[in-house]
Amino acid sequence: MLGLGVLLVAGVGLRMCPSPYLQGGQDQGIYVNVGHHIARTGRLRPVDRLLRGAVRGVPQADVLAAYRVQPQPEDSPLVGVREGRWTAGLHIEDARAGRLVPAFFHLMPVWFAMCELDWGFARSTWPLVPFWLLSALALFGLARRLALDSGDPRVRRRAGTIGLVALAGLALHPLDLWISSFTVTENLARASLLAAAWLSLEAGAAERDGRPGARLLAVLGGLCFAAGAFTRGSFVAHAIALALALLLARDEASRSRRALFAALVVGTTLAVVQAVLHSWPYFFSAAANHFHIPRLTPRPAVAVAWTIAAGVALLLADLALRRLSAPLRNWARRSLRVGAGLALALAACVLVQRAWLGGDETGPDQQVLAVLLRHGGPLPLLLGLVGMGLAVRRADAQRLPWVALAAVIVLTAALKSGVRYEFYYARYFVADVVPALTVASACLLGHIIARLEHRHGPRRSALAFAALLLAWLLPPLRLLPREVYWTRDLADDPAELVGIFEHVPEDSLLVFDDRAPGRWRGLLAAPALLSFGKSALAAPPGGHIVEGALKAGTPVFLLSGGWEPADRQLWPSAAHGPWRTRVVARGIYHAPRAETVEGGVPTRIVDGGGPWELQQLDRSVWRSSGAFSLYPGSMFVAATPAGFVTEPLPLPAGARVELRLPAGAPTCEITAALHTDTGPLALASLPREPDGPLLWALPASPLATAALAIAADCGSAFAWRWLSVRPAP
User: Fold this and answer.
1) So where does this one cross the membrane (predicted)?
2) How many Cβ atoms from other residues are within 10 Å of residue 224's Cβ?
3) What are the tens digits of pLDDT across the range 612-653?
4) Less Cβ crowding at N or C end of the chain, within 10 Å?
């Protein structure tokens, strides 16, 4: 118990600061942001007010065009499913209603939301710590149970030690440490896999020994495995492989096996149904991207019906196979054992071939096992493969399905190629294959030491065990301080993001500096919407969208990278001339990032952030022709008790001044004049159309900058909509 406690404390201590990854567009960023959205709103799916057309002055048609939302034919299965893409990681589910669906499952974000409600935004990612703790306990129990079920009494006596060795291998493995520190679903899926295997073997042992609770343990094992399918879409492939293996391996613990199979099939079926209903269209796109299955686009109702039919078919097949004769049952088990052995042999051949041919470890075309070899050393990988082969050869009917699943996991990891140095996509396999190889290595060490003790005595076997243990653990320990990066590493301090977005009112429009789209818009748009509820325009904003919002009185804010030092700035626009802005807030945005290019070796962490400025666009519209429009609230306008005066502005000679009043405004006597260095100059009034703007003519001679004064003699408060200066028609 003391060793178990020490290893658990050490493992948890290494993982006590999970990354507060909040960037949009990446898996881990979407998980955290969706979790914060759930905690903040109580809703599972976000709603974009811009898409819904709920932002004043921004027509929905303009936003749909900016997001390139294409209407689907009425008979298309994609209607209401994939009309467009808001940003990386978020799909438009219903553009007219503004509903978005994250391209990932929701179980992990729900955990983050619950944690945030109790511990606050900055600690919302801390469920990763108990997830690893559960994985560690399950791994210890699994290795111990495998040793207790061994036919060698010397191995059974060391069951606790074998469990501790496996736990040490997991706790000190740099790849497991990397995964445990990032907010990816592999953390919860790994715990589900290990807990299901442990509970299943404990259920079989309880039934063989006649102890109560065997069925309960088996049901819990099946539900734990199904929880992995609720967490990660690729886990459904593991569930299919395990279900087929359970059908072929009919063991003597029949009641617990049937309970495990039923819970596994029913739970996984429900997981796929929720994936279709709540994570569409990610479920089928992930199957195409990661398992090379042709992309399917059935309607949700059809997909749900096929899923339920497949689950029922598996349950009926299990009932039918109960009547198999003993020779057929033996043949099925033998076939499963041969298949698992061939999978391991193929994985070993692929590894040897890659090692023989060599390769550029800094190149993008790598395999997962090469990553394991580089970050864990050759001995753990060799022990794991040999131990897995020994398990395939010796496994009984109860353990054989789990051994076959482990062989499938190793084979998929061996065949997976195209992994970048940072192996962003390797994590799908690393999280599963590292525990499988660790348990196999620990059990193999137990058998080796038992053989050595039988032949050479306890003293020499103890020395051999110490040497093997050091050779197994030292390579990972040597690499433990070395951080594992991927190209898109970018972590945030939640307090810094709060400091950026707290200045943006809820009824405003947030745009991003289009001169650096990858740095600001692509990274911060999703956090602005999901974590902070801001109406952030993720697509490049059109000038007419911004102009419409300004005309309607919607505050428009611009987040930039701190390009200009002045508090009042000019921001160029290719189509609509410069926008005038005033700085609302400034700060320094820290975002640690791996300094690397695609396929390169990251050598250090650099700050991918920098200074930022939040600016509010002035309620003015300027044209390259010299024409402009001012609106109430503009920084260029100073209100007076009976009118307003502008700052000195460039006024084109011979231009026309237009003042538009609200509909139904009271009758007032309104005059316009220029305030120049030589004194006031009254402007001549021009005829106006019914319900048209008031018109004045500027002098035909060239003017320097001058202030424009509007005076109104009204019996009530003077109100106006906008003032324009434009060349005469």
Assistant:
1) 129-147, 159-179, 216-248, 260-283, 303-324, 336-356, 368-388, 400-419, 425-450, 462-480
2) 24
3) 889 999 999 988 777 889 999 899 999 887 889 999 988 888
4) C
Pinpoint the residues of the chain covered by CATH 2.60.120: 628-726
Reference 347, options 335, 358, 355; nearest CA is 355
> In the prediction, which pLDDT does 422 show?
47
E strands, 483-640, are 509-512, 535-536, 556-560, 568-571, 579-589, 592-594, 605-607, 610-617, 620-622, 628-630, 637-640
Backbone angles phi, psi at 697, to 5 degrees: -105, 135
**Exposed e or buried b per residue across 26-35, where buried means at least 16 C-beta atoms within 10 angstroms of its C-beta:** bbbbbbbbbb
Which residue shows structure tokens 């395990």?
242
The more confidently predicted of residues 354 and 270 is 270
pLDDT (tens digit, 9 = 90+) per residue, 648-673? 988 888 888 999 988 877 777 888 88
Here the tokens at position 249 are 């391996």
C-alpha to C-alpha distance for 132 and 325, rounded to whole angstroms: 43
pLDDT at 482 over 70: no
In 3D, which of 340, 335, 500, 483 has the Cα closest to residue 421? 483
Least confident span in 549-553, 568-572, 576-580: 576-580
Q: Is the dihedral of CA 272, 275, 277, 282 positive or negative?
A: negative
Euclidean distance between CA atoms 179 and 75, whole angstroms? 43
Work out the angle between the directed axes of helices 400-415 and 368-376 (0-180°, nearest 10). Answer: 100
- Asked if residues 432 and 412 have their Cβ atoms less than 8 Å apart, the reply is no
584 secondary structure, DSSP code: E
- Give the Cα separation of 490 and 499 in Å (integer): 18
Q: Taking the model in full, what pTM does it have?
A: 0.85
Local structure of residue 122 (DSSP, 8 states):
G
Sign of CA dihedral 511, 513, 515, 521: negative
Coil, strand or helix at 663: coil
Amino acid identity at 637: V
Q: How many CB atoms are closer than 10 A to CB 353?
A: 11
DSSP 540: P
pLDDT digits (tens, 9 = 90+) for 323-352: 777 788 888 888 888 998 999 999 888 877
Residue appearing with tokens 């942001």: 33
